[in-house]
Amino acid sequence: MNDQTDSSRRANVDPYEHARTAASGDGRGRFPKKMFIFTGVVLLLIILASTFISEVEDVLGIGLDIVNVISILCAAITLVLWVGWFLIFSRWRWWKRLLTSALVASLPFLFVFIFGPVLGGDLTIQRWEPIWTSRLEPLPDSVSRKPVTVDLSTETSDDFSMFLGENRDGTITTDFQFERDRFSSATQMWKHGIGSGWSGFVARNGYAVTMEQRDDQECITCYRIETGQLQWLYRHTARHHDVMNLGHVGPRATPAIFDGRVYAVGAVGNCVCLNGADGSVVWQADLNEILGVELASGTDEDGLGFQYEKNTPLAWGRSGSPLIMGDLVIVPGGGPAGSVSTLLAFDRLTGEIRWRGGREMIAYGSPVLATVAGRPQILLTAESKVMGFEPDTGETLWSFSRPGESNGGANTSQVSVVSESHVLTSNGYPDGGGELIALNNADGEIVATSIWRNTRVLKTKLTSPVLLDGHSYSLSNGFLECARLADGERIWKQRGRFGHGQLLLVNDQILLHSESGTLYLINATPNGYEELGSFSTVNGICWNTLCLYGNRILIRSEIEAACFELPTSDR
Question: CA distances (Å), 293 to each of 253, 268, 305, in order?
Fold first, then answer.
């Protein structure tokens, strides 16, 4: 009887009831075996690609920046798939599905908000800034209350008064050489905090000048090289960062010192000439007003207002260092489409505009004065062209198309003079690489032609190459490499990562400051990588250019500055 009753009950069960129960969640979950396997494979591929990035670059021609972008996309897709599994396939009760999905989806945002990763040049995490620590720039150092008179008029043989040195090419000739046996035990003269920004130091007569961001003030500061003591400070209310803050906060351009005065350009258009004795203003010009640039503004996570150019593609802020040429100060211009001026020339003494040159949008390099193709000219890498200008009038003498942008794959490197008739350009990002250009002067007209182009070498993202004896040495996609200038072929590549640091060539020795704050001494030879010594310098991201004053190296990041005395001997 009982068997008959059970049979009839089973017969009367709705055949779709089980499916409805499973769909609505019966509390019994499923184990996501396939999802764990998929996630493990994705993680393994990301780790392998990052670990063997040099080999990936050799095979595919892409750097760590592209690998990291792909890794982030893969991680995001994996996260979405996990959320989808919880919602659709887990068979949990609906409230558990929704709660778990919301928690998983919010984890990356909570992680970023709470721990504050600070990204370097390849979207690598350089350090963490948790919300319980202050992210504001350090307060200004106290300036002596006694009247300060700084002598920036007296010139010395040790001076480094221009961006990348007196020739603006990162190459310095001295009567000494660095001692390899004692280099790693260099003497630290001082080290202290500094305001944000990517400006380098320039130095004259025992004093060093740079730019830095201090809260909502864009500052030009002068330090005594011997002690690191702040001598004077100029302030201008401005604060730049890009929309996503990937380029970080602060001024970008390195100042110039000439005839006792300091010339500087702020990240959002303040062009100023200061009295080097005390930092007082001699003249000031608003590049935005001159060029018709509109600024957009916002408020950052520290509650401070920031600005960036609204109607131009110059996303990362003004980075071009002023070029002093006789009675003129030459600065990169820019502006909105239809009214661009590539270069602006100001009267060095009065600030009056003397000429405008070019109609090409600017990028992030600085103008260089050189004699090429039999003519003195100002060389500049603009947004998508390499150009030469007549120094007295700003007339465009020649131009050559070159891949690059002012927002994404930005041109930042200097034009390098190879010979009396050849210049070298370089750039990072997938369509970058090196290119040798011949300049032929035919009846007064300069014609530019490509000798070779190689997208696998000279992928300089935030730095410029240095040249010696027919070879270039550069940080290409973060690796130190040597390439032959005759044909653009790579001779060697050092597979240890230096990141997007900076180089100086001192005689036949390279000073390389890595992105993470290590100074290396390297023999500049095509025979292979030969490291002579190294030591740790400062904390922070080290994109700032180097400054060598005699045997003293001035180094900074966006949070610290330091001076080291390097051991030397006579050549």
Answer: 18, 10, 18
